[in-house]
Write a structure and sequence with these properties.
This protein is an alpha/beta fold. The chain folds into two domains: about 220 residues, Type I PLP-dependent aspartate aminotransferase-like (Major domain) (Aspartate Aminotransferase, domain 2, 3-Layer(aba) Sandwich), CATH 3.40.640; about 130 residues, Aspartate Aminotransferase, domain 1 (Alpha-Beta Complex), CATH 3.90.1150. It is built from eleven helices and 13 strands. Helix 1 runs antiparallel to helix 7 and helix 3 crosses helix 4. The chain starts with 13 loop residues before the first helix and ends with a helix. About 45% of the residues are buried. The structure holds pyridoxal-5'-phosphate. The site of pyridoxal-5'-phosphate has 14 residues, from helix 4.
Length: about 375
């Protein structure tokens, strides 16, 4: 039987893409803040309801650059239940990651456990809107304000997510996005940094262009993360169809939930009230005792039948060799994250899943 993959990239029409490529070829302006690059930044800012956005070549460089721009040093509080890039960005900036446990309800950082992890060296918090589920931004900001900390959100999963009509990307000091092919909205590889004011936007634009502030003036040790016109054109086309793709994912989520609601030992997330979700992932959590099988038993049974779920996020970042020696990486410090990493499977979730695909997935679980 055909493979059912956990995701499938949203691809623009080749004909429309070709028309835009002809424009790029004619202009010979292929990178360095070209016309499509500027247009995509503008259209994304409108779509996402954010004042300023800067495009990047992937979702990791905006994390690195946000930490640089805010001159973060010392210790940064984060969670181990994420993609490795979150913690790597802290390490690459010469800072020490401090892991705090997550909440069962959101898989995001548990605000009640942040204060105990703050030391005189703490300068920032890097929470993750895991699976696009908004974390408790008010509680996090209150702690940040009390201790004078910066907040950088890894919002790689939270494209288009809103709480009461407001983008989650407007919280904290900055938020980062990933436009990798596996994400809800993609530019093949790509990403962005969201900021709240023009001065910061300017500084970020210098930093992603080697620090150049003019033809001959370099104001900071910048990096190169400039997006070319080909990817910007691709991004413009995908932006036109992303709402339709999100709605198709929503319909898949409705079907999964309806079927799995009364299966003992399986937990999943319902929509949160007031939240516009993007249905980027559909994690289920297996309680082996009640379900009668462990997560890995089910995972490998599915794999055998060519249904490729993914164990996001297993293993925890805190278990990798770089980080496992840190005191905060001890499993006893991270009981919820440690358990959920053993329970989770993300089911196939994308805009092209057919009725038959969904039935095939469900029949393996039920
Ligand atoms: C995908 C992802 C990233 C990194 O994005 P890339 O575009 O692959 O560099 C960072 N954080 C999280 C939580 C992610 O899922």
């Amino acid at each position: 039987m055909d493979k059912i993959t956990v995701t499938s990239p949203l691809l623009p029409s080749l004909d429309e893409f070709n028309e835009m490529l002809k424009e790029i070829w004619a202009s010979k302006w292929v990178t360095n803040n070209g016309q499509f690059h500027r247009q995509l930044e503008q259209e994304l800012a409108e779509y996402l309801k954010v004042p300023y956005i800067s495009l990047f070549t992937n979702g990791t460089l905006p994390l690195l650059t946000a930490l640089q721009a805010l001159r973060i040093t010392g210790e940064v509080i984060t969670t181990p239940y994420s993609f490795v890039a979150t913690t790597h960005s802290i390490w690459w900036n010469g800072c020490r990651p401090v892991f705090v446990d997550i909440e069962e309800e959101t898989c995001g950082i548990d605000p009640d456990k942040i204060e105990a992890a703050i030391t005189p060296k703490t300068t920032a918090i890097m929470p993750v809107h895991c699976y696009g589920k908004p974390v408790n931004m008010k509680a996090i900001q209150a702690i940040a304000d009390k201790y004078g900390l910066k907040v950088i959100y890894d919002a790689a999963h939270a494209f288009g997510v809103e709480v009461d009509g407001e983008s989650v990307l407007n919280a904290g000091d900055m938020s980062t996005l990933s436009f990798h092919a596996t994400k809800v909205y993609n530019t093949l590889e790509g990403g962005a940094l969201v900021m709240h004011d023009e001065v910061t936007k300017k500084r970020i634009d210098y930093l992603k262009n080697f620090g150049f502030a003019g033809e001959t003036e370099v104001v900071a040790p910048g990096i190169n993360s400039k997006v070319d016109e080909v990817r910007a054109a691709y991004g413009l086309l995908n932006l036109k169809q992303v709402d339709e793709a999100i709605e198709k994912r929503h319909q898949v989520a409705i079907k999964y939930r309806k079927a799995l609601r009364n299966v003992p030992g399986i937990r999943f997330f319902d929509d949160m009230s007031g939240v516009r979700h993007n249905y980027s992932y559909f994690p289920i959590f297996i309680n082996a005792k009640e379900y009668g099988k462990t997560r890995d038993q089910l995972y490998f049974e599915m794999k055998e039948k060519n249904v490729l779920g993914r164990r996001y996020f297993y293993p925890l970042i805190s278990t990798f060799s770089t980080y496992r020696g840190l005191p905060s990486a001890a499993p006893a410090n991270l009981p919820v994250a440690t358990r959920l990493a053993e329970e989770v499977i993300c089911l196939p979730m994308h805009h092209e899943l057919s009725e038959e695909d969904i039935t095939r997935v469900l029949n393996l679980i039920m």
